[in-house]
Specification:
2 domains; mainly alpha; 0% strand; 175 residues; 9 helices
């Protein structure tokens, strides 16, 4: 199935593929065909977003990110919860990286406020740490002390208070 999605994404502009793709209509309903397209696009978009973040392509790639955000809003129902949270986390990191703190906070809140059972624990933990850093950048320091204590308890209760997390929380507390 995954390979099929990749092929659809890869060959969607080839004339011969267009004929083959159109023949899928005989076997799939229009809704199934649309979901297949959305999933193929999502498999390509998130790695592209990660590439932009890793290589510092921020302001130059904002238009591509807008397309990704639009696609995400249209594909929300076709994506599974872990993939949605990965998208949202990466969008938050992208905006944070060039100083778009309000937009970054909006996206990270979507991750933090999701049902925790649907999110990978490492993504959720890093999302909460990033949320604290964003609040610090926005000057919302009043809530940091309690939020840091709460996050430390949360991480400790799930055996996820590793050296990095402890160091991050200690650093934030001492600011």
């Amino acid at each position: 199935m995954i390979e099929s999605l990749r092929l659809i994404r890869l060959f969607s502009n080839c004339p011969v593929f267009g004929e083959v793709y159109n023949s899928l209509g005989k076997f799939l309903s229009s809704g199934e065909r649309r979901r297949l397209e959305l999933r193929a696009n999502s498999r390509a978009d998130n790695p592209q977003l990660s590439f932009f973040i890793a290589n510092g392509y921020f302001k130059q790639r904002k238009e591509v990110v807008e397309t990704i955000k639009e696609r995400l809003s249209n594909t929300d129902s076709a994506l599974d919860a872990p993939r949605k949270s990965d998208y949202r986390y990466n969008l938050s990191v992208f905006y944070f990286s060039f100083g778009g703190y309000a937009e970054s906070l909006d996206w990270i809140n979507r991750v933090v406020n999701e049902d925790q059972k649907d999110i990978q624990q490492d993504v959720y933990s890093f999302a909460r740490i990033l949320s604290l850093i964003i609040h610090l950048e926005l000057g919302n320091v009043e809530l940091l002390e309690n939020a840091i204590r709460s996050l430390r308890r949360y991480l400790a209760s799930r055996d996820r208070l590793y050296q990095f997390e402890e160091g991050s929380l200690t650093f934030l507390r001492n600011i």
